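Dear all,

This email documents one entry for the complex benchmark we are building for the journal club exercise. For each entry we list the sequence lines for every component of the assembly. Then comes the predicted three-dimensional structure of the complex as a token string, followed by one or two observations. Please use this as the template for your own entries, and keep the labels exactly as they appear.
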Amino acid sequence: MTSATAISAESLVKNFGTNRALDGVEFSAREGRVLGLLGPNGAGKTTAVRILTTLLRPDAGSASVAGHDVLTEPHAVRRSIGLSGQYAAVDENLTGRENLYMVGRLYGMNRPDARRRAGELLDGFQLGEAGDRIAKGYSGGMRRRLDLAGALVARPPVVMLDEPTTGLDPRGRMDTWRLIAELVDDGTTVLLTTQYLEEADALADTIAVIDHGRVIANGTSNELKSLVGGERLELVVDEATELDTAAEVLAGIGSDTPRVDAQSRRLQVVVNDGSKSLIEAVRRLGDSGIEVHDVGLHRPTLDDAFLSLTGKPTEVSGNGGTTDVAEPEGAATAERAEWGGRQ
Amino acid sequence: MTVVPPSLRDSSVVAWRNLLNIKRNPDWLLSGTVQPIMFVLLFAFVFGGSLGGGRYREFLIAGIFVQTVAFNSSFTVIGLTNDLQKGIVDRFRALPMSRVAVLLGRTSSDLAVSLLSVVIMSLCGLLIGWRLRGDPTDVLTGYLVLLLFSFAMSWVGAFIGLISRTVEVAQSAGLLWLFPVTFISSVFVSAESMPTPLRVFARWNPITVNADALRELFGNPIRVGMPPPSSWPAEHAVPYAVGSSLVIIAVFVPLSVARYRRVASR
């Protein structure tokens, strides 16, 4: 069991002044798997990554990477990891090739090996032609690819990617996803932080949802989805007074009770069969003579996940993340046990 | 600290990277090359006339050398804080490389910049009448003393860069302290004509002693109608200059390395 655990964090605590960035965070990743740390800005994801990569010391708790303790064997940890930061740490005055060569040399490779590896990675990351151009002229996506390549120079068994797609256009994001998937095919363990539920869903085998320095949910992507529920049917009525009627009319259409927000005249309900539910909803509303301003389906977002997990949207969950996990209707008791908020 | 060979290899990689950065942005060299020329010309001709003409110019050059390499320590401050801010240092710190290499690489590449400054100033000095009158061994020793001092000052700069909270603070902190330290010295005038507190400071100031040591080794006249230096440091200028540089290195290398281990990115 321990031999198969590539990354583990136990009860990590980190304070910055009076701000508790990590408040007992726990997670682990098995070898060759992808662990996604999912959470909004400021949740503590980057702090956790910085501790795992030996850049920060935790105030309490312990962590190990590839079997090495981050506090007592930092050098062995650094030898086993590749890091790609939130803001690509590319030296923009060096060419792509020089950047990778430098990293290779600093991993202890000799000159010919470092040169050869830089060439391989440039080709693999579609930077072959741009390799001898100065990185200052690279596009955001190219810089990100170069930063990612830098994390892989020494073929480390564990790769940490801090928000690898933040700031990328959709195509850049798809490219990055493909590269990460290839990494995993080669048996690399990946820790990935993201603000996008969709991204964690697409890439991660297990997901730890982090809020206010705590893991508020932890499980596989499917478990998270069944907890968060399917698509959301959302509509805005013309008159706020009609909200309650609309909620009554739509009761039973989805898997939970419709939630209403009087201020924005908005109603939201989790539905299981997408467009069929949408058509049914529009028909029922039409029959009741309720004027609808806007209606549509959307896939669950991080906000929705937080709403399901904490009963509050991300912006206002201000009590340190110690909330009991609200159980959405339809979630099985067994899942609740698995998903219980860590105290 | 790790064993010597990997740390030297890593430092040379970092220094190579720093020099490539300078090569790609030659305008960074402006203050390291144009500023000393400006100082030589300003002081030589603005003050020179009332302070002894050609003889003053000959006195002045060694002082400007020392002042310039002291000011070059601000390159270390700026280079290091830039790397911290851009996340480059984080990338280095997450690599299995020597802990001292980022700093030693930086101070080494800045030593190369100082060498360039010294070459330019020497040429400029020769043009305005400065002459090397010492024997070649002494002259070479003089340049080595100067470069050792430059290296020592660079480590002070590294420490300032690492304790500064922002790049802006680092830039002003890295420069401000140099004005009193270089002016309360024998760089421009003899320390002996200063009021007592300043004179005491100036006599023991490594800047003074390095300037005196260079004048001695280059064979440039120390007396230009000014009171001659008369203090223990002045009488033992060369050993005191070398000794003070070694003390600065011995203090600021461990301080900076300790600070580097703890510093978080900004």
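Observations: Chain A has twelve helices and 14 strands. Chain A touches chain B at residues 53-56, 75, 78-79, 81, 83, 85, 87, 89, 91, 93-94, 98, 102-103, 105-108, 134, 150 (CB under 8 Å).
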